[in-house]
Amino acid sequence: MNDFADQKVVVTGAASGIGRAQAQAFVQAGASVLAIDQQPFTLTGAQVLVADVTQPETADLVTAFAPDILCNTAGVLDGYATAEQTDLETWQRVLEIDLTSQFRMIKAVLPRMLDQHHGVFVNMASIAGLVGGGGGIAYTAAKHAVIGMTKQLDLDYAGIGIRANAIAPGAIETPMNAADFAGDRHMAQWVAEQTPAKRWAKPEEVAALTLFLASPAADYIHGTVIPIDGGWLAK
């Protein structure tokens, strides 16, 4: 499961958090990794691309890299904003980053995967893609759509050796959630108390699940969404 020596992997949102942990895990497993983020960063052992995943030229560069595995991890939160609080510009921005950028990347790499009759997509969803309350209206809508897109993608191409699955993280301690740990850490403590496992997860735990889903050991896992949420959805 941990040998990716002959595999090329693209990870978006790789400057920090889950994306960075995923990229590092694939590097350690021997893969050739293209790590993408719009923020300048370094990542030992990976080819780094500072680029905006919402732009067509970024998709073109991903096409040229010709990955076997694509991890669509880049994303943005919306501050739990309600419909009343969300203007159209914010709605479009969140969906462009959290949903449409994933579609752009899929379109960029799919032709090669079709040619070689093999490929793996690991799309980042969220528990907000399965229930309400995990984000605001734009984020929740985008993550529900990611799950639907993933299922249809797999259904369309499973018969020719392409797999697509989604991961639905719950409380993961990343820079994206830094606001929850600010000040007296009240929000972070409340989330931990409300989570059956009574803690936040580390990004490396999501990365480990990613490597499993990308490996031959998961070859019969198709079109599913796997929560990694400390039992949040079991309540």
From TrEMBL:
UniProt record, GO biological process: bile acid metabolic process
N-terminal signal peptide: none
This protein's UniProt keywords: Oxidoreductase
Entry GO MF terms: oxidoreductase activity
Pfam families from the UniProt entry: adh_short_C2
Matching InterPro entries: NAD(P)-bd_dom_sf, SDR_DHRS6-like, SDR_fam
Annotated NCBIfam families: PRK06550.1
Family: Belongs to the short-chain dehydrogenases/reductases (SDR) family.
Entry protein name: 3-ketoacyl-(Acyl-carrier-protein) reductase
Originating organism: Lacticaseibacillus manihotivorans DSM 13343 = JCM 12514
Lineage: Bacteria, Bacillati, Bacillota, Bacilli, Lactobacillales
